[in-house]
C-alpha cells in the first residue's frame, strides 16, 4: 500500500518541477563579507517547497537541495573540485551554513525556492573576503605606533562603509582613510578590535596586546620603621614573560632619589639595581637592604625589605627599555612614618612628653592620625581624629610601653609606627640620700669583709706550712680562737686532709664536727675524739645554738638544757648572754616563758645537702618580691587613675562655680529686680553680683532659711573644690 503511494508522489514531483520552472521568477541579491576561516550563514525567509543551492553564476555547481518530504542532498567531497567543499556545508529548511570558509569558497551563491502556488524565487548571495591586518605584530609597547587595516573586495560600482570598533565597542575616530587606523597605542587599546562593514553583521576581529606596567599608587606609598616595605613594579598577569621577551628587552633598571630634606644623602639619584638580560639576574646594590622578589619570570620586578628604614623615603623609579627605543617607567614615592619622642624614650615619671608622628613632610588633608596608647595608660584621647604632635604634660608609670600611631585614609589603614617608652620612678631628695647612705654602708661592709678575708687567708697560709703533730696542735688552738665559726676552707687544705687517715685522725674528726656538728654529736662520739678544753666546749655550744636557731625562732630552755647538757638555767642564761655579746645571735631572753627569741644569727658551714634547700628558699623569696612589685605598680596605676578622675571633678566643679557666678550676675543685672540703692552699688565688690532686694521685704528681717540655702550652695561647691585639690 505504501509503495504505490511513494511512486505517486515522485511522479507528481516530476511533473510539477518543469511546470514551476517555466513560470516567471523573482530575485533578490545580498552581499556578505566574511573573514577566512570563519563561518557564514545564508538564510532563506521565503516559504518553500523545494530549495536548490548553486555556487557560481547561472546554473553553476549544485551544492545541495531539500524537498518538503524530508529528502536532502549535500555535495560530497568527491563531486567538488579539489575537495574545497569537504565537511563545510550544512543545510536546513531555513539556511545554508558554510563552515571554515577558505579562498575557493568565496563567490556567488544562488538559492532557488520552488513553490507550486507561487513563482520561483531566486535569492542571490555574494560572499566576499574580509581581511584585517595589524602592524607591527602584537604585542605592542605602550606608545608604539598601531596600524590596523581592514580590506574588502567590494562588488563593482559599490563602496561599502568600513569602520573600526575599539575594545570598548565604540567607533574609533582615528581612521586615516576608510578601514585604516594609525595611532599611538594606549592602555585603552588593549583587547579585541572589530572591523565592521556596512552593518554589524559583517565583522572581523583582531587582538591587540599592549605591554605596560601596572599603574603606580596615585599619591604616595606609606610605610614605617615598624613595617615591611614592598615597592611595586610588575606587568599585568595577562602578559606573559615570553610575550615581553619577544619585544626585545634592552635593559631594566631601578633608580632611587632620596628626599630633599634628607641630611645623610644627597638628592641626586642613585642606581640601585640593573637586570642582566642574558642570564636574567639582578646586579648591583647600594646597601639599602632591598632585595628583588623571586617571581621575575612572572613579570614581577618589585623590590622588598623586611623592615623599612628612615632613609628609605624618596622616589623609586623602575624603567624598562626595549630594542625599538620604547621605554616604560614607573615612579613610586615612598613615605616612611616614624615617631619622634622628645626628650627621648628613657623618661622619669613627671616629665613632659612630646610625641610627633611624622613622615618628614606635612600630611595631606584627607589623611588622619590615630594614636593608640598602652592599655595601662590613664590618658584617654577621645575621638579617632588626633593631632600628629601629641603632648603629655606629666607622664606616669602607667604610660610606659608601646605607643602606636596609625595613618588612615577613607577608613583604610595605610601604615602604623610603634615606639616603646621606658618610664622610671622619680627620685626625691630623701630617696637619693637613702640610696647614697645605703651605698656607703655596703662599701664599708665590703671593706670589712675584705679585711677579715685577708686575715683569714693569712691564717690559712700559716697552716699550709705545717704537718703532723704541729698541724694537729695548730688546729686545736684554732678551735679556741674567738670569732671563728667557719671551718670548711680549713678542711679543704691538702695537708689537713692528710690527717684523716693518719695517727691524728681524731683531730681531723673534731675539726669536721666543729664545721658541721653539734654538742650532742660530740657527746655521742666523745670516746673517739680528743677531750675538749673549756674554750672549745664553750664554742661548740655556741655553734649548737646557731644550728638550733636556724630551725626555730623561739628556743625553749628545756631544749637547750638537754642539747647543751647544762646543769641549771643560770648557766644557760650566762651562755646565751655571752653569745649575744659576741654577736653570735641577736634576740632576747623570755624568763617568764622560759625561752629565748632569736632574731638572727651568724652563719655556719653549709653541709653537702643544704645548698638545694637554700636555692629553693631564695627562689621563693624572689617570687614574693616580684609579686610585691606587681602589687606596687597596680597601686600606682590606681592612684594615677584616681588622680585623673579628681582632676576631672575639679574641672567640673570649676565649670559649675563659673556658671553659678554668671547666673547670679545675670539675675542681679535683670531689670525686674528693681534699681539697687546707690550706696550699696558703690560699696559692692565688682566681682560679686549685687543681690536684689524686694522693697516690701527690706524692712522685715531676712528669712534665715533662704539665706542659708544660698550660702550653703556656694559653700558646698567650695568644699568639693578643696577635696579635688
From TrEMBL:
Predominant localisation class: cytoplasm
PROSITE patterns in UniProt: IG_LIKE, PCI
Biased composition range(s): Basic residues: 704-713
Signal peptide extent: 1-27
TM ranges: 429-452
Alphabetical UniProt keywords: Cytoplasm, Membrane, Nucleus, Signal, Signalosome, Transmembrane, Transmembrane helix
Family annotation (InterPro entries): COPS7/eIF3m (IPR045237), CSN7_helixI (IPR041481), Ig-like_dom (IPR007110), Ig-like_dom_sf (IPR036179), Ig-like_fold (IPR013783), Ig_sub (IPR003599), PCI_dom (IPR000717)
Pfam families: CSN7a_helixI, PCI
Top-level taxonomic group: Eukaryota
Region described as Disordered: spans on this chain: 662-725
Protein name from the UniProt record: CD4-1 molecule
Originating species: Scomber scombrus (Atlantic mackerel)
